[in-house]
Amino acid sequence: MTVETKQSIDFNNTTFSNERRSPEELAPIANEIRRDIIRMLVRAGSGHSGGPLGSADIFATLYFGGYMRYEAKDMKAPRDRFVLSAGHMAPVMYAALANAGCYPKTEQETLRKYNTRLQGHPGRDMHLPGIETSSGSLGQGISIAVGMAMSDKLIDKNDRRVFTLTGDGELQEGSVWEAAMCASNYKLDNYCWLIDNNDCQIDGRVPDVMNVYPIDKKCEAFGFDTIVVNGHDFADLMRGFDHFLANQKNGTGKPTAIICQTFMGHGVSFMNDKFEWHGKPPTKDQAVAALEELANAE
Asked: Is the pTM of the predicted complex or chain greater than 0.90?
């Protein structure tokens, strides 16, 4: 795999398409992301509902809150990087990128179709703008992202920010903690680890499968500056991202972990906090009900 690097990135003199937005402005964006997720999944007839719906507020804040710098019309230009380590949650990333203007929203109709750029897991070989690497084998995306952050900080010496999102069930993978140990050892304060803590995975509740708690204490023990936020409260999410930016600006030498406490399927009442929705799409009738509920939420 080839990772793009550029030694003379000047973020201070670059114009980016994403501006800082208020929590009130982020709420309708997150709602539209959720609607797009439902539309994509019911058309595809397969895919994951719970995690994408539950993390929509995180993605709205990251992509539209002014924390990740990018130019939507040219995602090869100088930019910050995001890696979706939990690649099965791809619909939420595709929806965020489409709403940002990185590719046409009409293309969302092709999710999981043959030869589409919107595969079931992100594929860099499909050349969808905003996909930095292929992912989906749990535990590997975070390792790649830490490598990117190492390259930026130690070799290219630029101030690019690198973000990763993992699920909490993904923390059962040993490679996650090897990557975390590496990020701390190399003082990667340009690295932000987002953990979608919905306490659900495909086989049940996380503690019932393999307990990973206390997540915050583990992250701290691995050398991360750790903050716990409400993953459905935009102001609280912004507090977490602001904490990361301050770490990087002040050169603390500590990577940041933001533990986002969420509910799987959030926004759709019959999916909310139910692990059974981890890996299945809605039926047509369920999609109609979900879209109606989301429309009434505005």
From this structure: yes
Backbone angles phi, psi at 120, to 5 degrees: -60, -25
C-beta atoms surrounding 150 within 10 Å:
19
Q: What is the CATH number of the domain that holds 285?
A: 3.40.50.970
The whole-angstrom separation of Cα 280 and Cα 260 is 23
Q: Please tell me the total count of domains within the chain.
A: 1
Which strands, in side-by-side order, build the sheet including 191-197? 81-84, 162-167, 191-197, 256-261, 225-230
Query: The tokens of 133 are what?
Result: 């690497």
Tens of pLDDT along 193-249?
A: 999 999 999 999 999 999 999 999 999 999 999 999 999 999 999 999 999 999 999
Q: Give residue 79's domain range.
A: 24-296
Q: Is residue 76 part of a domain?
A: yes
Asked, as a colleague might, if the bond just before 214 is cis with ω within 30 of 0, I would say: yes
